[in-house]
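Please study the protein below:
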Amino acid sequence: MHPVTAAVTNRIIERSRESRAGYLSRIEQAQHDGPGRAKLSCANWAHAFAASPEGDKQRMRNPASPNVAIVSAYNDMLSAHQPLERFPPIIKAAAEAVGATAQFAGGVPAMCDGVTQGRPGMELSLFSRDVIAMSTAVALTHDAFDAALMLGICDKIVPGLVIGALSFGHLPVIFVPGGPMTSGISNAEKARVRGLFAEGKATRDELLESEMKSYHGPGTCTFYGTANSNQMMMEMMGLHLPGSAFVHPNTPLRDALVAAAPRRAVEIAHGSNAYTPMAVVVDERSIVNAMAGLLATGGSTNHTLHLVAMARAAGVVIDWSDFDELSRVTPLLARVYPNGSEDVNAFHAAGGMAFVVRQLLDAGLAHEDVVTVAGGNLRAYQQEPFLQDGQLVWREGAEESLNPDILRPVSDPFLSEGGIRLLTGPLGRAVIKTSAVKEANLAIEAPAIVFSDQDELLAAHARGELNRDFIAVVRFQGPTANGMPELHSLTPVLGVLQDKGFKVALVTDGRMSGASGKVPAAIHVSPEAAHGGPLSQVRDGDLIRLDAHAGVLEVLVDAAELAARPKASTSGSNVGYGRELFGWMRRAAAPAELGGGALFGELA
């Protein structure tokens, strides 16, 4: 192992010793209790399969016949999740073929951040992760299953499914992805039209036509945002079947992978010789592997929230210092939009996850000796699936990059460090994604312009007030204030100003989309303004220095003067569009560095 990777892992193990032991103790008790249905009364068990076909009923009467839960985030609003509609029949048929049964145990909500960007509904987005976790628990709490399959792909959905499933960590759990849509228009063309619209030089019809050519079919959006970062992490954590992340939906190979998941779930189910509970797959080492993959591929900063929450659900405690230290020794191996010009389909074609896994393992930047749902160790994930005479088989993936403009080895990376840095200083702690930011823009000192929401910034731009050097401070966007919505709609505007030659940056206690790129953004500032953090005392004209090289975020105001200033407050609305239903979550929300959700007091 690389000494820094080893040291960070050991520190996490030590920090997590008590919480991890408590989690494993709960899981061990559930394991000793045996399969849920063995404890159910005849009436309970009969209820569980009363509506099943006769053949399923006969198998379910047999205590040796495994029953696999299906938990799905299917809906038509997410292009990535629409293909999941076809999966349950494929899964049920594959389970029947090996003498098992599969039941649709429950559905979980799945909102599309692409639809809600800049809208009030986005204020429910982060908390939807907790709702998904709770919904997963409701689905599995029937306690009638020997294993489970999680059908989900996008932003909050996979983290929520992971958190919920870890409460049932005595069950083997396999994540079943759907894959990306085919490539549409180039990312450069999409960004060009967005920029023209932000400047008032393109009509709404022209913008819509461009977006429809980009988001045009079933599958994940093809940029490397949170959804595709999720899929990368499920491979790095050993929760997918190897190489299944980026295979297109509605293809013979995708259907073969879907059918293989229940067969494998039966092989590793409770009572089998290969029993592989989720609790032993997700541990300190697999969490470090997920961080390594995120950094090496320039993945979404949203996972500085989500991965923290996922880890805590398994009793593992990580923080932003861990990301920062690993980032300094993990080279950037991939350039995928918005960190490059090409999309995830080009990344997959260049060698994809099999190449990344091989490189990280060979360099000692990821742990090989982990448990995976595929059996063996993480080396299984340097293989890729294909069809041979109609049968699903795996072969060794590319040992060399097939396109060095997209994917490179550790010996010749795009950057010597990963894409995420920790910023600290008088304004608090924050993270910044550096992989898509040009070197000249990684350190900026400029006067602040303070906004209480993103609409104020957009309005100021429309009035022509932002054609100058400045650092936008957009505050009261944290979990407690309004649920921490993504501020992706600011990206085109700030990008246009940067392209005009102005020095611009963003400082916020909110989030930026996993698709955000070239404008330096200190995000997730903690403590947030709604908790009285220093952001609440920043004023227009204060000089702010953001230096990603040095890891510094500071306001150049005398400390005593800053402390003496009154703290601003916000009168932002938290009602309408369902927001009033989430008041208890805003009040219970943890700080961003603890994951930003409302569940963590119980998970700590």
In short: The chain has a mean pLDDT of 93.
